[in-house]
Amino acid sequence: MSRVGKKPIIVPNTVNVTFANGVCTVKGPKGQLTFPMSETITPNMEGQTLTFDRANDDKKVRALHGLTRATIAWMVEGTSNGFSRNLQVEGVGYKVELRGRNLLLSLGYSHPILFIPPDGVEFAVATPTSFSVKGYDKHLVGEVAAKVRELRPPEPYKGKGIRFEGEYIRRKAGKSAGK
Question: Which residue, 42, 47, 120, 143, has fewest beta-carbon neighbours within 10 Å?
Fold first, then answer.
């Protein structure tokens, strides 16, 4: 039995989970998410506890068992509490600021970059060199954070660029002195 798939999900009172026509819909105070489920996975809702059973022990069904449980667990977490990804900007003259709900980045290029977030994602700037990406959809928050990091990834010589909080950048030695 899948260790992930057999763990129960405790659904808070503020979140509503419904299953209809092979689709799971999770509604909470932060938003609403949907997930198409396989017909081989059956949900069991008992009070505030949600568990999943699988039809057989095929390899693909076992994988879907854990995937379905994990995805619906983060949907419940996201619609009740939300997710955030913290990023840091490092480099001389590099900074970020909030313009409305958009992010204005000065990253050493000849022009500033205005990043417009998709619906369901917002930015929060703590200092000019650190900010966070927040939202209720875990995939979307991670994707937007990766796209922002892609604008100026950290380079290995001085470490300048945008990095995730706690990310380790492997440094390289610079040019050697002449012979």
Answer: 47
Give CA–CA dist 152/100, Å, rounded.
Answer: 22
Residue whose token pair is 């990834």: 153
Other CB atoms within 10 A of residue 57 CB: 10
Q: What are the residue ranges of helices labelled H in the chain?
A: 59-80, 138-150
C-alpha to C-alpha distance for 122 and 20, rounded to whole angstroms: 30
Domains of the chain are 9-80 (3.90.930.12), 83-164 (3.90.930.12)
* Integer Cα distance of 84 and 138 in angstroms: 8
The predicted pLDDT at position 79 comes to 94
